[in-house]
Amino acid sequence: MRVALVLIVELKKRPITRGRTTTSTRTIFEGVIIMAPSSLQAKILQTAEALTERMKGEKPSLFSKSRWLRLILDLAMEDHEFKVDMFHFVDALPMLTTNEQVSQHVRDYRLHEKRALPLWASAVFKMASNPLTAAPAVATIRTIVTEIAKTFIVGRDTAEALATLRRLHEEGFAFTTDLLGESTVSAAEARQYQARYLDLIRCLAQEVPRWQADAVIDNNHLGPIPRANISLKLSALEAHLDSVDTEGSVARLKERVLPIFLLAQQNNVFVNLDVETWELHGITYDLFEEIVTHPDLRSYPHVGIVVQAYLKTAHEDMQRLLDLVRKRGTPITVRLVKGAYWDYEVVHARQHGYPCPVFTRKADTDANYERLTVMLLQHFEELSPAFASHNLRSLVHALVQAEERNVPPLAYEVQMLYGMAEPERKAVRSMGRRVRVYAPIGELLLGMAYLVRRLLENTANTSFLRSRYHEGTDIASLMATPQSSISFNG
Ligand SMILES: Cc1cc2nc3c(=O)[nH]c(=O)nc-3n(C[C@H](O)[C@H](O)[C@H](O)COP(=O)(O)OP(=O)(O)OC[C@H]3O[C@@H](n4cnc5c(N)ncnc54)[C@H](O)[C@@H]3O)c2cc1C
């Protein structure tokens, strides 16, 4: 299953319309109203203004580095139909190996006609649609997509990526790296992926000790933490994952995943399990529980998993992890995210007629993120918090809540994706907080689903980065408390 492709095909059939964007806060963040100032809210606004001051009007790579990326994002934000067809095209491109196949796709999706595109884009698609002129146009398209992908990917292979990881470290940022690849289709591919991870661990273990010391990113409040940090996606490690056969799926995965955790422990490398779609949620949590309670790993603290705040089960997930830590007697890290598969989950649930696992109001996800932030901070000695977001409101809320609760600054960290929010990450780091950059490594082909998720996320009219950098919404509006109608128990 290719998540991005399934999603785009479905979006094409039944587009999800979220209304036109205006700069009014009420429209951008459905359900958000600026609350009467409380001392917490006042502190959030004050901290956000101080951070913004440190950003000196800089823009993230996403909106500044690649001219092509800016153009594609602009076009996608203006025209929903074009966005759906365009992202479908980007997703399919690596599989269209000949010029004729690209040309056919352009014709099938009529990318070359009846679109309000800038002249240059119309000309490229028109040329690509004609077999006689396709070659230079297809070459241009491939160059553009490759350039766009580079904004989000640190290198095609480990050797290329190491230079960027080292540069990040010199600039004061920790990293977690992930080998792009998901939804593996064969056992051979999964074995190959596991072997690449084992090589990555060995390679990082050799490389990172040579780097200069940095007290903020090399330590937490208790002492040194691993410099090398990897993130794993389970769908790339086993071809036959089935939520109906959780036990069998976990058993098969364990054979591939356990050796990665054991080698990581031997080499002082941190391992995080990323959480993907709802179908894999139960399998991922069950597997994590089995791995971290394994007799050889029980006392290894440098392991982590993700909680997705958009899930209606997120609070139970957090409680389950707390119980797990109490059972095993060693802390773990929890990366708190909102969730990267929102469009897919909504479409998939509708398509299969099961209850939607995610909130469908952005304010509910944002409010849940803040509620889980507080829960993490209350238990920071058992669940080391890693706040992963590019939303300044979500992050500043976490920083202020941590300060209010006297949580030591190095007891938690902030995480951001490579290419997404450089001004924010520099500003947070300049306040003496540990910031970790999620840095994917991989070939264009393997990176396409990841690229499409980033494009979808940043062109959604609920996106924080879009509101801030594309719509130019002011900080006070962006710092509004998310107003949720959901009553949170527990
Ligand atoms: C370091 C790092 C690691 C990550 N790892 C993972 C991972 O393992 N698994 C994973 O799933 N994601 C992961 N993500 C992605 C993350 O889940 C978000 O997709 C991304 O960070 C955007 O959220 P935001 O808070 O930055 O931005 P915002 O713009 O504030 O939030 C966007 C998010 O809000 C949610 N949303 C959008 N519209 C609605 C709506 N109508 N109703 C309800 N909710 C809505 C979606 O989750 C969307 O991604 C990671 C992100 C980072 C920074």
Largest β-sheet summary: 8 strands, parallel
The strand line-up of the biggest sheet is 1-10-9-8-7-6-5-4
User: What is the name of the CATH topology of the largest domain?
Assistant: TIM Barrel
Mind telling me the C-alpha Rg? 22 Å
Architecture per CATH nomenclature, i.e. the level-2 architecture of the largest domain? Alpha-Beta Barrel
Oligomer: single chain
Q: Given the helix and strand composition, which structural class is it?
A: alpha/beta
Distance between the termini: 36 Å
Q: What percent of residues adopt helix (DSSP H or I)?
A: 40-55%
Could you say which small molecules are bound to this protein?
flavin-adenine dinucleotide
Mean pLDDT: 88
What is the number of beta strands?
10
| Uncertain runs | 9-37
State the CATH class of the largest domain: Alpha Beta
**How many structural domains can be distinguished in the coordinates?**
2
Q: What form results from the Cα inertia axes?
A: globular
Taken as a percent bin, the fraction of beta residues is 5-15%
Q: What count of helical segments does DSSP give?
A: 22
Provide structural commentary.
With 490 residues, the protein is α/β, with parallel strands linked by helices. It has two domains: 1-33 and 66-150 and 449-478, no CATH class; 152-442, TIM Barrel, CATH 3.20.20.220. The protein has 22 helices and ten strands. It has helices at 3-13, 25-28, 39-55, 61-64, 67-78, 80-92, 99-108, 119-129, 134-150, 158-170, 187-207, 215-218, 246-266, 281-292, 314-328, 342-352, 362-378, 392-404, 422-430, 444-459, 464-470, 475-478, and strands at residues 174-179, 219-220, 223-224, 229-232, 270-273, 303-308, 332-337, 383-388, 413-417, 434-441. The strands form two sheets. Strands 1-10-9-8-7-6-5-4 form an eight-stranded parallel sheet. A two-stranded antiparallel ribbon has the order 2-3. Strand 8 (383-388), helix 18 (392-404) and strand 9 (413-417) form a beta-alpha-beta unit. Helix 8 (119-129) crosses helix 9 and helix 13 (246-266) crosses helix 14 (281-292). The longest helix has 21 residues, at 187-207. It is globular, with a radius of gyration of 22 Å. 49% of the residues are buried. Mean pLDDT is 88; it is low at 9-37. The structure holds flavin-adenine dinucleotide. Residues 274-275, 306, 308, 310, 337-342, 359-362, 364-365, 388-391, 394, 415-417, 438, 457, 460, 462-464 line the site of flavin-adenine dinucleotide (FAD).
